[in-house]
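Sanity check

After download, print the first record. It should look like this:
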Amino acid sequence: MCLAVPGKIISIIETNGLRTAKVSFGGAVKEINIQWLPEAKVGNYILAHVGTALSIVDEDEAEEVLRTFEDFEDMKRNL
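Expected structure tokens:
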């Protein structure tokens, strides 16, 4: 099973024709390949898997998924 995680683009870098972005995943910032999403811009939420952005997602949907992850963490702590 694969898991794509939503994150918010905080900056975009283009080096030698390759577009990457600094993406915040709940405060953890990672560099993600956004080459497949030429329309991606700062402030967009994306779904990322293995360092690659797969799609742009709605902000409300992304935040709902992140809240669900937080709920899972809370449940795990309470076990």
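If your output differs, re-run the checksum step. Summary of this record's structure: The first strand starts at residue 5 and ends at 15.
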